Amino acid sequence: MDETGANILDRAIEECKAAIAASPLNADLHNNLGVLLFKKGRVGDALRECQEALRLRPGFVRARINIANAYLSRGTLDEAVDEYRGILEVEPENAEAREGLAQAYYRKGAYADAAREYLRLARLRPGDAVVRHWLASACYRQGQLVEAVGHCREAIRLSPQYIEARFSLGNIFYNNNAPRDAIREYLEILKLDPGNYNAHVCLGVAYYRLDLARDAVRELRSAIAIRPLDSLGYTILGFALMKIGNSDDALAAHQEAARLNPGSAGTHYNLGDTYSKAGRVEDAIRAYKVALSIDPDYVTHRINLEFGVEDRPWDLPRR
Question: Which domain holds residue 180?
Fold first, then answer.
């Protein structure tokens, strides 16, 4: 019988422990055990072994990187930053440490620091599209739209089939009032991957925003054919169908969204609106009550938006 990957890893850990028992002052063995334990998901044990390796051999860069990676994995981001920066003081061209530092800053929400480190990493790895994509994301988080678009485009130039970068570029355009540019990117994704559910949904939303409701319906039906158990496609389809005057199918779409995602206040609120527009007041009230029982804050927010009073509290009737 073939060994599973887990069994092979367990055996490697035991063999490494046996080797350490025979040579307890061997820093490489402690570091190797740390790597194996990290792969096993035992991050705390891995950290202790790599720290022991560093104690035995001060200046052991590989062990320091593993320590920093363990901190990053655990979410102790300040410690990770300190370790990565310490490594880079000794080896400024260490790309792995530079990448770890950029990730730690990004996860801390220090996007300017993250962008700076990703830019330095891009100089070390000029052909790495993923680095450019992360750099684009860090810029976008700071509101640097021109820079974000430029780095997304560079990521796509480096890797024309990099779908995640195309999504980011399309979403940047959509979120900044350029839906036609967004549509171009989503269409490019569908050339690469015709069965991409998210691309069909995003394309449908962009068409809907441009009042191209029939095109939106087409894309959303394509999305549902790919992933028939996802409520999102039905929800947006319902809006698009209502816009072209197909109220019966719109109601059916919102009913299906609520059936598939019964714990969502939004699906029930949308269903209530659709019932209300169809004149089915009692059904609308029932749907609104379900939404209210799930998330009163969501219902308050929707009412405020619809009545144009988002800047002040809305007093809901209480029983």
Answer: 161-261
